[in-house]
Amino acid sequence: MAQLSILEFPDPRLRTRAVPVAQVNARIQQLIDDMFETMYAAPGIGLAASQVDVHERVIVMDITDDHSNPRVFINPEITIIDDALGTYDEGCLSVPGFYETVERPSIIEVAALDRDGRPFTERLDGLMGICLQHEIDHLEGKLFVDYLSPLKRQRIRSKLVKEQKRRS
Ligand code: QAP
Ligand code: CO
């Protein structure tokens, strides 16, 4: 297992659209294991492969405090079940230190492949549904800051660039 480094906004590589996984093989399973290690170490509740500079459609998620519900979504497709929007103060490992309110549909259904390449479908609500939509956005090259006003996004960008220069 290995911890991977996480790309941070405004890194242009985060804007890459990820391609579908053609075959769930040992390489993808290794990627999944490394993504879990990286996410748990952060700590975070969701991570898309795009964030570790692998532009394939793989997501890991675990919203529990005790790492008891690790979930994998490969090539996820979502359907909105209920148009009603909910709000959540979202954060992102690629936008460290910033949390802002985002509105999204509250109840969704997802069709995806699991760690063994087996298809499944599931209805998700609450934080699981919100987090999965946030992670699927990453696969499309989209970030939660894109839902904010240009002014807020620019402020976050400036602060992060400054922090990244200080560290490098
Ligand atoms: C996505 O985000 C998410 O700023 C997952 O300094 C989060 O795991 C979707 C994290 C909330 C919906 C709601 C963020 C860790 C982790 C930070 C994360 C930070 C350290 C974020
Ligand atoms: Co994120």
Please describe the structure with a list of short key phrases separated by commas or semicolons.
alpha+beta, about 170 residues, 3 helices, globular, binds cobalt (II) ion, binds 2-phenylethyl (2E)-3-(3,4-dihydroxyphenyl)prop-2-enoate
Number of helices: 3
User: What is the terminal separation in angstroms?
Assistant: 26 Å
Bound molecules: 2-phenylethyl (2E)-3-(3,4-dihydroxyphenyl)prop-2-enoate, cobalt (II) ion
Q: Strand content of the residues, in percent?
A: 25-35%
The helicity comes to 25-40%
Q: How is the biggest beta sheet arranged?
A: 5 strands, antiparallel
Low-confidence blocks of residues: none
Overall SS class: alpha+beta
The secondary-structure element order is HEEEEEHH
Q: Could you tell me the mean pLDDT?
A: 98
Task: Let me know the number of strands.
Answer: 5
What strand order characterises the main sheet?
1-2-3-4-5
Computed CA radius of gyration, to the nearest angstrom: 16 Å
Shape annotation: globular
Textual characterization of the structure:
- The chain is of the alpha+beta class and 168 residues long.
- It contains 3 helices and 5 strands.
- The chain has helices spanning 26-41, 126-139, 150-167; strands spanning 46-48, 58-61, 71-90, 100-113, 119-124.
- Strands 1-2-3-4-5 form a 5-stranded antiparallel beta sheet.
- Strand 4 (100-113) and strand 5 form a beta hairpin.
- The two termini are 26 Å apart.
- Residues 42, 44-46, 88, 90-93, 96-98, 130-131, 134 line the site of 2-phenylethyl (2E)-3-(3,4-dihydroxyphenyl)prop-2-enoate.
